[in-house]
Amino acid sequence: MTTLHPAPPVDGDAAAQLAVWPASTTRLPGGDLAVGGVPLGELADRYDTPVYLLDEEEVRTRCRAYRAAFPDAGIHYAAKAFLCRALAHWVEEEGLGLDVCSAGELELAVATGFPAERIVLHGNAKSPRDIDTALRLGVGRIVIDSPSEIARLAAAVAPGQRQDVMVRVVPGVAAGAHDAIRTGTEDQKFGMSTGDGYAQHAIARILDQPRLRLTGLHCHLGSQIADVRPYLTAVRRMVGLLARIRESHGVLLPELDLGGGHAVPYRPGEAALDVPGLARRLRAELEEACAAARLPVPRLLLEPGRAITGPAGVAVYRVLSVKQTAGTVFAAVDGGMCDNPRPALYGVRYAPRLVGRASRTEDRPTTVVGRLCEAGDVLAEDVPLPADLHPGDLLAVPVAGAYHLSMASVQNLVGRPPVVAVGCGRSRLLVRRETLADVRARDIGL
Ligand code: LLP
């Protein structure tokens, strides 16, 4: 596809509505939108719906923004937000590392040429396969999440070898947009707490293991955090622990990984985490805390996921039915919680819009639902959409690049949608649509 459409000038209000769309988004004369120079109507015709696009330049720009804000830090993209081979390639070319949480993510990345030494393996319940794959492929660091992992991991390291590890500590900081994505407090499954001495005990045991080399501490506060302050609190606590480790063991740990969690807006007017501001204030806090504790400043590592790919993705659905029930207008589309479970899981609100044509009718409150057989399959409740919305129309949902397809299911055997890269007026298929043949191929018994 090679059409490049000129962008008509966009007035202030209209520009605000596109604030959460990829920077390349333009309005086309007939009412459609183009992303990466590709009209969404054409995209839907060519690849069918539902279809997810990823704006390659938006992903790369976001990677570069992190590297510019944190020139001395290690930035590991959190693959759990979304991973495919092309994405691993872009992230690698932009000089980032990768955070993976399974042998699957790890193998996919390494098979695509991602350098294993730039990969960090996470997981609160690492399977033997996760650990074996990490050691076989030579992963850079493994983040130990529980005491039981220590001996298991040390035993799996080949004699004469040493594996770099970090320890995941619970910083005791409450942050994040929803209970299910808060991981910095004591009442959740990740990491080890300092309050009950678990973390200190684990650190002592790791330092005793000749096949493990402890490079630093890790913490991850949660996800969709728009405020810098929880990170500053976490830094102070982590530096306090680094100082105690030096006192008890005479060891200076060279790295501090603060995880990810940086918020992006899903609807116009919502807040993003200010990444350059985070960089400035983290650096100042870290330097001050380390000076007070007379510690050298450790190298920072960060693991943004959503902030790299979320705003680069757009989901495009076809409307299959429009009806009114007890005063609510329902527009049902050809996807749903099978490709985006986030509204159902965390009550997240999105801003879908009509694409592919212009409408001259007024907007009215409309609830966009999916096609799955359950009433909770709602994608966007009470959002303004044109009153003449009808079957066959296209609805596009911005900020769909993170935690949609990585959490997709095959509920009701509706296959998972394809992923298409867009840029410079061209599109190319990255991940093909899941077909009934794919589903049937797994179903081998009678
Ligand atoms: N590092 C670790 C250890 C993590 O567990 C996560 C996310 C990240 C980094 C990246 O966080 P991000 O920058 O993307 O917020 N499914 C939820 C989000 C779950 C986050 C899981 N861990 C959602 O859709 O909001």
From TrEMBL:
One of its GO terms (molecular function) is pyridoxal phosphate binding. Keywords: Amino-acid biosynthesis, Decarboxylase, Lyase, Lysine biosynthesis, Pyridoxal phosphate. Residues 57-309 form the Orn/DAP/Arg decarboxylase 2 N-terminal domain. It comes from the Bacteria. Substrate binds at residues 306, 342, 346, 374, 403. Specifically catalyzes the decarboxylation of meso-diaminopimelate (meso-DAP) to L-lysine. Belongs to the Orn/Lys/Arg decarboxylase class-II family. LysA subfamily. This is Diaminopimelate decarboxylase. The gene is lysA.
